[in-house]
Amino acid sequence: MLTLTESFFVRLLRGTVVTTAFVSFLAAVLAVVYALYAQFAPEPQPNIRGSIVRLRDAVDPAKLIKEVFTSDSAIAKEAETPDHIAYQLSKPSQAELFQQFNTFLTRSLGASFESQNQFSDWLYGSNSIKFNWSGDLDRTSASDESNINVLWLSLFYDFAKRLDYRAPSIAAANKDKANTAGIDRFTASTPPSRAPYFLVWFFNKLQNELQQVGQELQAERVQRAALRLTIPISLYIAAGAFSYFIFIMFLFLLVSIEASVRQLATSGIAVPAPPGALPSGGIQDNT
User: Residue 175 — very low, low, confident or very high, per pLDDT cuts 50/70/90?
Assistant: First the structure.
C-alpha cells in the first residue's frame, strides 16, 4: 500500500507526463499546419490595379509645379490644394489625348501642339519618350489597368485633365516675369525625344513608381521562397514531437499497468477461481 507522500508524487508524475505528452502532440500538430501553409500559401501576385491611388499620386501635376517653380511663388502655394478630380479608367485614342493636352496648353499658355504626328511620335515613335516596366507586373491579356499599356494611357489622360485644372494658376504665373524660369523648365525640350518636360516628367515618375512596385513584389516572392525552405525543419520538429508523444504515452501506459497490478496485489483481494476448478488441497473423502 502506497503512503500519502508516495501517492502524491505518483499523481504528480502522472500529471507531468500527461501535460508533457499533450504539449508535444500540440507542437507536432502546429508544425504540420505550418508546413502545409508554407507549401500551399499562394505566390505573391502583382496588383497594379490596386496601386492606382499610389501611382496617381506619383504623377500628380501639383508635384511637377512645386518642382519647377520656386517654393515662395503663388503657384507653388496654390499647388498645395488638392484638385479633387476623380479618377476613371479611360482608353483614349491618340486624337483624344492630343485634344486634351491642347485644351490645357491653350488655357494655360495660349499655345498648342502644332502636329498630332509629332505628338504621336513622342509616345510611339522611334525616338519616343523612354518608358519601361517589368514584365512581372504586366498582364497583357487584361483589359483593365492590370495591363500596363492600358494603365499608362488611362493615367496619361487623367494627367492631362488634372493639368487642365491647374491651367488658370499656370496662366497667372505665366504673366509674372518672376516665374519665367519656371515656365521655361515646364515646357523645355527634353532629350532624347525632344518632348516638353511636363510630358517627360510624367513618364519618368510613373516608371520610377512602377519600379518600386516591382521591387516590392520581388521582395515578397523572396520571402515566400524563404518560407518554403523552412518546410523540412518544421517536418523534423513535427516528427520529433510526435515520437516523443508516442514514447511518453507508452511509458505512461506501462507505469499505469504496473501501479494497478501492485495495488491489486497489496489489497488482499483473491482472484476467484474459474467454475469447475479443483480446490487447492485436492479431492478429500469426507465419508
Answer: very high
Residues 280 and 271 sit within 8 Å (Cβ to Cβ): no
Q: Phi-psi category of 181—alpha, beta or left, where left has phi over 0 and alpha has psi -120 to 50? A: alpha
Q: How far apart are CA 123 and CA 192, in angstroms?
A: 12
H/E/C letters for each residue in 239-281?
HHHHHHHHHHHHHHHHHHHHHHHHHHHHCCCCCCCCCCCCCCC
Position 9: which residue type? F
Cell numbers describing residue 3? 503512503
Shortest CA distance to 41 belongs to which of 228, 219, 215? Answer: 228
C-alpha cell at 238: 513535427
Q: What is the pLDDT of residues 35-59, one digit of tens each?
A: 999 999 889 999 998 999 999 999 9
Positive or negative CA dihedral for 229, 230, 233, 239? negative
Task: Please return the burial class of 204, using the count of CB atoms within 10 Å of its CB with bins 0-12, 13-18 and 19+.
Answer: middle
Could you tell me the three cell numbers for 2?
502506497
Cell of 204: 519618368
